[in-house]
Structures are given as structure tokens and as C-alpha cells.
Write a structure and sequence with these properties.
single chain; alpha/beta; Rossmann fold; seven-stranded mixed sheet; four-stranded parallel sheet; 18% strand
Length: 326
């Protein structure tokens, strides 16, 4: 068992609902095991600048239900350099920190992997916090469930106005490289079609779907992930309007609303389980791994294997959309 004296916890990259629940779990688990814990503000940039302060039980009181991150977040160009990582290391040593818990996604873990190779005396593990659900080594990432529920709630409201005016809505959701939000949310809202970057989107196939659909449908919803290759929602809307000038076509970009809001119960529980596990695996001597949950079992995946995947997609989801859109 590793003798960890002080853990630093930080959030990096884009925020995700459930980060605060994860911070809370890390802090209180560390205290439970008589380990000091410090919060590092503003991710790797704050680490370089020494924005480090002690945390205690009360520091994380009444935050489990809050979106965003109390530690703030961001990206750091300095940390991409060996010099910047050395400055971060010096700040950690100055504050007697010998282990780190990194909350973030792809970029966070790439940085953590580089840092771990250069400074092996500081153990580092990660928690998957990203609304995109695009990391290997976990069935779901922290923040994903909240994001798709936010999309479903928003599109349900769009459907109300679409039905009132017999409109076709093109709804763009986040997912520049991954269509995971579009896939699940699209099924959840009963979309006529889903367009994601992992598959080759065929506009002719979309036209055929729209033509085969029931003519008496009061509304039609097409969900587009922002990274889909035919273009964003506005471009796809333009193409459809040009092809079918009789359609009353509208475009809605949901944008950053998908990142905010109170985390769902699922995200709060996932964040709590993984936060506890992060501290416990540090005590067990783990290093350079992401903590995840696969088939409801805690798992550990090396950073280099956990990073973003673009090609993994459940084709059955697209088949379900086609069947149910009749």
C-alpha cells in the first residue's frame, strides 16, 4: 500500500455536470483515510501558478447538486511544454503534494500521461468528466447523463412549437468528434433522423427518410451532431429547404446549455463512486490510470488507452431510429 500524505484535486478542460460531486467525493474520502487534500484552481494553469489551497469537509458542503466546478477549469498552453510541466511539478512539491486526482477528458489525460512519465514520484489518476461520453474504459462519463437529459427536455419543448406550426426542426447538439449525445437523445425524443460524425451522413438517405415518413405528421425533428460532415444544422437546413421549399424548416442550436444545470442522480452517484475509488486506488499504489465503470464494476484503464475514441458507435441505435420514425 502506497503511503500517500497529500492529494491535490483539480478540474481541467471543459466543465461537466457532476464535477462538483466528484470533487466532494475525493475530498471527503481523503479525509476519511487521514490524507491531507488540496484544491488546485483553474486546472493545469492554476497548478503552474501555484493556485493551491487546503480543503476540508466544509469546503465541499452543499455542492453535490451544483453544476460546473467550484475549482474552476480551463486549458493551459504552458502545460503542453516540458518547462511548463516542470513549473507545475515544483509548485506541487512546494505544497507537499505527492498524488493528484485529475477530473477531465481527453486533453486532461494526455497532459496527465505526459506529466506522469516525467515526474514519477507524483502519482496521478483520473476521473472521466466529459459530456461527450467518448473515453474508453467506462460505459458512461460523468456529465453525459445530465447532458442528454438536458437535450431531451429542450427538444421536447421544441416539438411543442413544431407541432403547432407543422414544422421541420433541425436541432444541433454538441459532439464535434462524437455523436454519443445525438444518438441517445435522438432516440429519447423520437427523432426522424440522427446525423453523427462517426458515420457517413448521406443527404439522399435523409431525403428518402423524410419522403417515406407519414405525411400526416405534425412535426419532424432531425438531430445533428455539430461535427457531422455535411455541415452544421444551418447548412443542412439550407439544403433541405432548397430540396423541399414547401417545408417550413427551422434550425435550433442548443449550444452550451448542454453543459450546465444540476447533475442528474445518475451523474451524482457515478461521480461519488469514482471519486471514492480514485483515492482508494492511489492508496493501493496505482498510477497513470483512469477510473471508470464497466457493467457496474469499477475498472482502471491506463491514460494512453482511455483517450478519445471516434469510431466506436452502436449501429443498432441508428437502426432503432429508422424503425421507430415511421
Amino acid at each position: 500500500m502506497a503511503h500517500i500524505k497529500k492529494i491535490g484535486v483539480f478540474t481541467s478542460g471543459s466543465d461537466a455536470p457532476g464535477m462538483n460531486a466528484a470533487i466532494r467525493a475525493v475530498v471527503r474520502t481523503a479525509i476519511y483515510y487521514n490524507i491531507e487534500v488540496a484544491g488546485i484552481r483553474r486546472g493545469y494553469e492554476g497548478m503552474i501558478n501555484g493556485e493551491i489551497s487546503p480543503m476540508e469537509r466544509k469546503s465541499v458542503g452543499n455542492i453535490i447538486q451544483r453544476g460546473g466546478t467550484i475549482l474552476k477549469t480551463g486549458r493551459s498552453e504552458q502545460f503542453r511544454t516540458a518547462e511548463g510541466r516542470k513549473r507545475a511539478y515544483d509548485q506541487l512539491k512546494k505544497n507537499n503534494i505527492d498524488a493528484l486526482v485529475a477530473l477531465g477528458g481527453n486533453g486532461t489525460f494526455i497532459g496527465a500521461s505526459e506529466f506522469g512519465r516525467e515526474h514519477e514520484d507524483i502519482a496521478i489518476v483520473g476521473l472521466p468528466c466529459t459530456i461527450d461520453n467518448d473515453l474508453r474504459g467506462t460505459d458512461f462519463t460523468i456529465g453525459y447523463d445530465t447532458a442528454i437529459n438536458t437535450v431531451v427536455e429542450a427538444v421536447d419543448k421544441i416539438r411543442d412549437t413544431a407541432e403547432s406550426h407543422d414544422r421541420l426542426f433541425i436541432v444541433e447538439v454538441m459532439g464535434r468528434d462524437s455523436g454519443m449525445i445525438a444518438l441517445r437523445a435522438g432516440i429519447g425524443i423520437g427523432a426522424e433522423a440522427i446525423m453523427v460524425p462517426q458515420t457517413r451522413s448521406d443527404m439522399n438517405a435523409l431525403f428518402e427518410r423524410l419522403e417515406k415518413g407519414r405525411k400526416d405528421k405534425a412535426s419532424k425533428i432531425v438531430v445533428v451532431a455539430e461535427g457531422d460532415e455535411p455541415g452544421g444544422a444551418f447548412e443542412i437546413g439550407r439544403i433541405i429547404q432548397e430540396k423541399y421549399p414547401n417545408y417550413d424548416t427551422r434550425v435550433s442550436i442548443l449550444g452550451h446549455i448542454q453543459r450546465g444545470g444540476k447533475p442528474t442522480c445518475m451523474d451524482r452517484v457515478l461521480a461519488s463512486r469514482l471519486g471514492v475509488a480514485a483515492v482508494e486506488i492511489l492508496r493501493d499504489g496505482h498510477h497513470g490510470e483512469m477510473v471508470g465503470l464497466i457493467h457496474n464494476v469499477i475498472t482502471f484503464t491506463p491514460f494512453e488507452l482511455s483517450v478519445k475514441h471516434h469510431d466506436d458507435i452502436n449501429a443498432d441505435f441508428l437502426r432503432i431510429v429508422e424503425i421507430l420514425s415511421l
